[in-house]
Backbone:
């Protein structure tokens, strides 16, 4: 005679519950995109005017106008991840339409008008953003009103 043993529901679904727990606890890096769309070995410098600043995840970016010959060309300038930019004091108001910038970074492959920003200067107020390695920083000019 076979005896029916009622296995508690939690034990029956243990493998599925464990899988869900592990997947949901995976680090966000797994979903992070690479920078392969940029030519990291090359550097390009542009004089641009801000059109829009999008302070979004995962990477904030600027849409800017860059004079190219007889017409303007719209470029997308990608910055480091939003989390690190917030940590160094950047906000959604850091850049506004009309700001004139000088930017240097890795240009897009295949002549795409995109740039991964390594240095950014705003001459009007001395603001400077740098990302010489994996950690960005903002360099502010010394105060002169003392």
Residues:
């Amino acid at each position: 005679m076979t005896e029916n043993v009622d296995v508690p529901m939690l034990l029956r679904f243990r493998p599925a519950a464990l899988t869900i727990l592990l997947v949901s606890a995976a680090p966000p890096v797994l979903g992070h995109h690479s920078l392969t769309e940029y030519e990291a070995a090359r550097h390009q410098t542009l004089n641009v005017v801000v059109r829009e600043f999008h302070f979004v995840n995962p990477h904030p970016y600027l849409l800017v106008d860059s004079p190219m010959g007889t017409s303007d060309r719209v470029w997308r300038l990608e910055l480091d991840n939003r989390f690190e930019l917030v940590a160094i004091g950047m906000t959604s108001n850091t850049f506004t339409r009309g700001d004139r910038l000088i930017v240097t970074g890795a240009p897009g492959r295949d002549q795409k008008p995109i740039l991964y920003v390594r240095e950014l200067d705003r001459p009007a107020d001395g603001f400077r953003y740098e990302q010489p390695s994996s950690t960005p920083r903002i360099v502010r000019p010394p105060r002169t009103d003392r």
